[in-house]
Amino acid sequence: MVRELADRVYLETGFEGGNVGAILTERGALLVDAPMLPPEARAWRATVASLDGGVIYGVVNTDYHPEHFIGNAALMPTRVWGHEAGARQIAKYETSTLDQVAATFRKERPALAEEIANLQIYPPELTVGERMALHLGDREVHVLYLPGHTPASVGVYLPEERILFAGDNIVNNEHPTMVQADTLAWIDTLRRIQEMDVDLLVPGVGEPCGKEVIEPLIAYITEMHRRVAELFEAGASRRESVDKVGMLDYYPVPENQAARIKRRRRENVERVYTEIRTAQRRR
Predict the structure, then answer these.
(1) Residue 58's beta-bridge partner residues?
(2) CA–CA distance from 112 to each of 94, 101, 203, 226 (Å)?
(3) What is the rounded CA–CA span in Å between residue 109 and residue 11?
(4) What is the mean pLDDT of each run of 10 residues along the chain (283 residues)?
(5) CA 51/CA 22 separation, integer angstroms
(6) Where are the alpha helices (DSSP H) in 196-282?
(7) Cis amide leading into 77 (omega within 30)
(8) What is d(CA 126, CA 95) in angstroms, rounded to the nearest whole number?
């Protein structure tokens, strides 16, 4: 269900893969991420058109994970922004990523799987370094480099409305996804967001929230890094670290999502272990 966060700023939380936003301007609609599934992306395009009857000015992909950019195909022709490192990563995906996503639907929804497998990928053509300001008639929008969840994550900031579409750098009372994270950069980014003039944070998945979610997330990342570092120094293997770190109780785990969250927590520990091992080898 689409909701209005501020004057002509909209959020949809009901799509597979995560949240998407629409910022309506005199130049058209600037979208934040694209629904992953083609039917949902087409539905979102129709919804945006119904909100103001205008064109899509462009879309910002907040990182290079497929749930953020596969739906770009349904929004064409339009501009696509992302971080320069993310554009390079997406360009490497091509059929392999589409096949992986399609495989998850092949048994239950074969027609959808076939459509996903044959999509054309549209990576960002306009890339962001540290910051980019868009002056879209009556509205100013900033695209900010916010490394952490991935090394190429960006956020979309509305200074007048004091809203930040933070992508997957922000989680609201759930375990974060750290499989490609730069954890130390992530903590720096979260501290930076704390200092920003922001009232409303829009996470990549889940309900909008305030800055109260930031300290628990910093504590989670910091504690996991500390525990994994201690185990690494004691000679534990990556698998042993997964078994011993714990932290499943740090955020609530809904019963119907237990397997998914356990897998995510395992991937988080493995990622932090790899970061620590790589840093050790560079010394």
Answers:
(1) 30, 79
(2) 18, 10, 27, 43
(3) 27
(4) 94 94 96 96 95 88 92 95 84 74 89 89 88 94 97 97 98 94 96 98 96 97 97 95 94 89 95 94 79
(5) 10
(6) 214-233, 238-245, 258-282
(7) yes
(8) 22
